[in-house]
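Lecture 7, part B: from sequences to assemblies.

Below are the input chains for today's worked example.
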Amino acid sequence: MSIAITTQIICFTILSLVILIGALGVVLLESIVYSAFLLGGVFMSVAGLYLLLNASFVAAAQVLVYVGAVNVLIIFAIMLVNKKEDLKPINDIKSRRIISTTICLTLLSLLIRVDLTNVWSLSSPQNSIGEESTIRIGEHLFSDYLLPFEVASVLLLMAMIGAIVLARRDVMSKDISTGLPVDQELIEKSSEPLLTNKN
Amino acid sequence: MNLESIPIQAFLIVSSALFCIGIWGLLNSRNAVRVLMSIELMLNAVNINLMTFSSYVDNNLIQGQVFTIFVITVAAAEAAVGLAILLSLYRNRVTVDMESFNLLKW
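Predicted structure of the full complex, as structure tokens:
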């Protein structure tokens, strides 16, 4: 990396602040739409961190896959299920909050302690290959990581078909064995249209 | 300051904090979409960790970056299937409240 160290530190500070504050916003904000857009910001900042680590290919993949696909998918899902509803109160919500917050803070302190006390055996000054990393990733994917690469393609195909089957409205119109029409009430409950009762 | 690069601990602390925020959101959200978002946050924290070690420890054979590519792939598949499950749940229950999905509860 040819950027001066001061610039690197400034970029790192800004990016990590955006990541942490954005992540807190994602889990704490009341409106789910704001959460989704903040999540996009968090993903972009994580891509910025990858650029600081001299991994331009993974940064581009992060922007394309996370911001371009996953975040858009989440926003579409919000658009489809976004109905104002009054959540039923839970009686032991306070103790749940306390327990989960304690667990998270304990885990965080444990992880930070490991980070700070462990002696990392780091190799020579970082980023010896720099821009060559894309070539190196390609070599890995087609030599020693060939099997995981192919398995990942099968996994994506399975996920695509599974998502289509799960999200389709009419699962089957005819019974395969008897040829009779399937009782659609078993598959989906009849419900009033969602758009009309919005006030 | 006479550093020659950002200390590795800084990246690790950011990723730990992001992971813990993700866990907190996973445990405390009542909206199912927010639960999926928290899972994405945790996956991103893991990715930052992998990339950091790939850059600082293994900067010649960047195997951590290959792992990150695979994690991104699996995360995309997980988001697609998760949101499809969420849509079909919503169609059956007309709610996204996590507390009302108790069909498999004993």
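Note for the exam: The helical segments of chain A are 5-28, 32-52, 56-81, 93-117, 133-142, 146-167, 184-187. Keep this in mind when comparing with the next example.
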